[in-house]
Specification:
about 180 residues; N-terminal domain of TfIIb; alpha+beta; five-stranded antiparallel beta sheet; binds zinc ion; Jelly Rolls; globular
């Protein structure tokens, strides 16, 4: 891993799959983000059982960090978002919270990519929901469309007790925070 940090772009390490124990490839990839810490992206996909793993790590000392970014225009949709497996992502205006969980993967995307991920969950809900739940999902879908058109300002907040998540914009507010005791 030290080698990867020293500028090597991509390192493949064989290791046992976390789900079935068969050997699979873990790919360590570094990515340089201007004016920011380099990040390490670790991913694996097991050919035997289909288990997938993805996580991100900042190549600096980890401390609990919160990033807050106000998305106000279409330009803001291209701002990079790095979310590690331990990051909680919230958009209060949409009532959306993505918490770390067993099935959760880290990702490197942009604001638009985050909205697309939420939209795909909402569309899944619309396949079966009825009544109030359906009304809520339809409302959320419309708000996401407005946010993607730059017509519905939202706030993106990521809290990560390991400091491995980030919103890469000079307008993003970066601050330390005290993780709640149950974390
Ligand atoms: Zn496997």
């Amino acid at each position: 891993m030290e080698e990867a940090a020293a500028g090597q772009q991509r390192v493949v390490v064989n290791g046992p799959c976390a789900a079935c124990g068969e050997e699979c490839e873990y790919i360590y990839q570094t990515e340089t983000i201007p004016y920011f810490s380099d990040i390490l992206i670790i991913s694996a996909s097991c050919p035997a059982c289909g288990y997938r793993y993805a996580n991100t790590q900042m190549l600096h000392e980890g401390e609990p960090l919160r990033f807050t970014f106000r998305v106000e225009s279409i330009d803001d949709l291209s701002v990079r978002v790095i979310r590690s497996m331990s990051g909680t992502l919230r958009i209060p205006e949409l009532g959306v919270e993505i918490e770390p969980g067993t099935a959760c993967e880290g990702f490197v995307t942009n604001v638009e990519g985050v909205l697309e991920r939420i939209l795909s969950v909402v569309e899944g809900v619309l396949c079966w929901a009825d009544g109030d739940e359906r009304t809520r999902a339809e409302c959320l879908k419309a708000e996401i469309a407005d946010a993607r058109a730059g017509e519905f300002p939202i706030t993106l907040i990521i809290e990560d007790p390991t400091g491995n998540s980030a919103i890469v914009s000079d307008r993003a507010i970066r601050e330390s925070f005290a993780p709640s005791p149950e974390e």
